[in-house]
Amino acid sequence: MSAQGRFGCEGRCCEKSVSTEGASVLAEPARSDVQRDIRDALEQVTDLQALFDVVARGARRLGFEQCAYGLCLGLPFTNPKTLIISNYDARWQRRYCDAGYLRIDPTVAHGMRSDSPLIWSNELFRHAPQLWSEARSFDLRVGWAQSRFGAAGTVGMLSVARSHDALSTAEMAARDAACGGWSSPLTSSCPRRFAVCMVSNDRR
Fold this sequence. Notes:
Blueprint: E1 2-9, E2 12-19, H1 34-44, H2 48-61, E3 66-72, E4 82-86, H3 90-98, H4 106-111, E5 118-119, H5 129-137, E6 142-149, E7 155-162, H6 169-179, H7 184-188, H8 190-203
Antiparallel strand pairs: 1-2, 3-4, 3-7, 5-6, 6-7
């Protein structure tokens, strides 16, 4: 069960989703079928909420309690349409928008210019200590983000987070070895699928 709302964020519309599914999460071991299951599910859904639910389930299978997906369509050039959807605490979603944290979030700055994966750290947030402190108060303590770039300037960024167990490069390498690039279906397929769903929803 989930509830949706729209909040003004940097003068653009941010679609937010708060899901109560999976409140208690146990990390499932990475398996070779994770990629296939996620990719197949992504291709079968046409609704934004259903699409995000697939992403959230994939994140949980990979050991992350929370996740967010941001998409900038790049068009129109004067006011690109932006979507942010997550299962973060609703209070943090509103605080993030109200405080204008999108402007100073170093994960967003990195994701807009690079598709290299990024692990959250104290060093990463050294110029945004208030943002980092508040995020951690909502159990967003350990995280990872990666962007993918699409046609016509489209940028999609996946962020996954958990409240404990530091994410190391060794864990990332182990998961890659186990499932051939564990994050691949979540990052590579999402920009296109979310863009399709955004356009479909706007036409309704």
